[in-house]
Design goal:
This protein is of the alpha+beta class and 265 residues long. The chain folds into three domains: 91 residues, Ribosomal Protein S8, Chain: A, domain 1 (2-Layer Sandwich), CATH 3.30.1370.160; 76 residues, Alpha-Beta Plaits, CATH 3.30.70; 86 residues, RNA-binding S4 domain (Structural Genomics Hypothetical 15.5 Kd Protein In mrcA-pckA Intergenic Region, Chain A, Roll), CATH 3.10.290. Helices cover 29% and strands 29% of the residues. It has a six-stranded antiparallel β-sheet with strand order 10-15-14-13-11-12. Strands 5-6-4-9 form a four-stranded antiparallel β-sheet.
């Protein structure tokens, strides 16, 4: 199947089509030149669409590695592997480098501060992976194509002065994720019913939000309010955050289902 038909099959349009075309180019480069070839960093949603594309293209899971610089990374790239490179050895060919930006702890910089500073320097989002902000420092995963420039030129975020150094990814600081446990009962496990609890809004408003295309289930867009969820599903919405349905309990005497959510705050 040619590239255009593959992109049609996966339903790619606009920016997504351009992105996936680049993914296929990297896969073809690894195959034709017999060298590792990496994409830029992809969001979780982009990764899911990419996986759909690779399955349609018949590219085996042993033909690529998904890397983010550390275990559990949210933003990852795909490294396509030549036949001489085993997936277990892919880390050694990774184009990802880890930088640490230190600042005065009282500055209390946020993820947005760092991202805004990088964009102001002309660094596009695709060149930067996760930004892990802690007290007094932030660890960033970046592509090697921009790492040296940042080491030499990046010295501030807003009014805060930065000292930027390269570190071994083994020494990365991963901040503890702030979560809130929510227990409730719902009339059903429909997406709109659970999202009403997860996003703290009326069920009708949740249904409208879903229909608008702003909601994702397990990083895939879902516009069906009646989609049934299961334990382990993650639901996110632009502007409203995300939550995980961690537990589905029994049914109450009134016919409602007990649920436990982990809401990210």
């Amino acid at each position: 199947m040619d590239k255009s038909k593959l992109l049609d099959r996966v339903g790619a349009v606009g920016d997504d089509r351009l992105l996936l075309a680049k993914v296929l180019d990297r896969a073809e480069q690894a195959n034709a030149r017999n060298i590792p070839a990496a994409t830029d960093f992809l969001s979780p949603q982009q990764q899911m669409v990419t996986l759909d594309l690779l399955r349609l293209a018949g590219i085996s899971e042993t033909g690529y590695a998904r890397l983010g610089g550390y275990e559990g990374a949210e933003r990852n790239l795909f490294l396509f592997l030549p036949d001489w490179l085993d997936p277990d050895d892919a880390e050694g060919q990774s184009p990802i480098r880890c930088l640490r930006a230190t600042f005065r702890e009282e500055e209390k910089l946020t993820h947005r501060d760092f991202l805004g500073s990088l964009m102001g320097m002309g660094i596009v989002r695709e060149k930067v992976g996760d930004i892990l902000v802690g007290p007094g420092s932030a660890d960033l995963l970046v592509l090697d194509t921009v790492a040296d420039f940042l080491l030499q030129s990046w010295d501030s975020a807003g009014r805060a002065k930065l000292t930027v150094t390269e570190i071994d990814p083994a020494h990365i600081h991963i901040p503890q994720v702030q979560c809130q446990e929510v227990r409730d009962t719902v009339s059903s496990l429909r997406l709109d019913a659970v999202a009403s609890t997860g996003f703290r809004m009326a069920r009708g408003k949740a249904a409208d939000l879903i229909a608008s295309g702003r909601v994702q289930v397990n990083w895939r867009e879902c516009t069906k309010p009646d989609k049934l969820l299961a334990a382990g599903d993650t639901v996110s919405a632009r502007g409203f955050g995300k939550f995980e349905l961690t537990e589905v309990g029994g049914v109450t005497k009134k016919g409602r289902t007990a649920i436990v959510l982990k809401r990210y705050v």
